[in-house]
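Lab notes, practical 5.
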Amino acid sequence: MEAFLGLPALLLVALLGSGSVKITSGGRSRLVERLGKFDRELQPGLSFVLPMVEKVVSYESLKERVLDIPPQQCITRDNVSIEVDAVVYWQLLEHSRAYYSVDNLQAAMVNLVLTQIRAEMGKLDLDQTFTTRTEVNECLLRELDEATDPWGVKVTRVEMRDIVPSRGVQQAMEQQMTAEREKRAAILRSEGEKEAQLNEARGHAEALVLDARAQQEALLLEAEAQAKQQSTLARAKAEAALEIARALEASPRAEEALRLLLAKEWMAMGEQMAAAPAGSVLMVDPQSPAALLSALKAFQKSDS
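Output from the prediction step:
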C-alpha cells in the first residue's frame, strides 16, 4: 500500500523536476518571472527554475534579424504617389526591456518604419527619391535606432529596396527619357555635321593656300631663271663685243670686214632695238669702225 502511494509521488517529483530544468541555446535568452514578477534572465547553458513558483515567460533570439517591410504608398513633396518597401536589420540587446516595454515588438517596429518612410519621402521631390537613396537610408537608420532604443533594440541597417512611381508617372518619365535621348542624339548629329563642314572648309582653305604658295614659288623660280638667263646673255654679248674691240685694235685690216658684217646685220639689230619696250639705243655709224670701238668701250663701262 505504501509502495502504491509512493509511485504517484515519484512520478510527480519526476514531472516537476523535468519542468524545472531549462537548457538555453547559444545566442538566445529566456526571461523568468517569480510569482508574476520579473526575476532574472537565463543565459545560454543549463539553468533551473522552481516549479510552481517561477515561470519562463519569453524565449527570444539575440542574433541579428531581418524585418521585411511591406510596400507602402507615399506622397512626395511634389505630390507624386510612389510605392516604397524596405528591409530593416535589427538586434535584440536587452531582452527584458523589449518584453516589458512593448506588447508586440515586431508589429511596433513595422509601424514605426512605415511612419518614418512616409515622413522622409514627404520631404523629397520625385527625382530626389532616386538620387538620394543612400542619404535617406542613413537618416532612417538614425531615427529608427533612436526610437527603438527604449525597447532595448539596436537597428543596424536600413535599406530601401524599391521605389515604384504610379503607372502614369512611369509613362511620363519614359517619355521624358525618350525626349532627352532624342535631344542628345540631335545635338550629337548637329555637332558632327558642324565639325565635318568645318573640316571641309579648313581643307579647302589649306588647299587654296598651298596652291597660291606653289604658284608664287613657281613665278619666283621662273623670274630668277629669266634674270639669270638675261644676265648670262648680257655677259656673253659684252665679252663678244670686247673680243671684237680687241680684234679691231690688233688688226687694222679687220676694219673693212667688220664694216661689211655690221652693214649686213645692222638692219636686223635696228628692228630688234626699235621693238624693245625700254632700254638704251646705241647710235653708231656703221662706216666708222673707230666710232664703233668707242661705243663698245662706253657700253663695257656702263655694263660694269
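Observations recorded by the TA: The domain at 64-165 is CATH 3.30.479.30 (Tetrahydropterin Synthase; Chain A). Residues 167-250 form the longest helix (84 residues).
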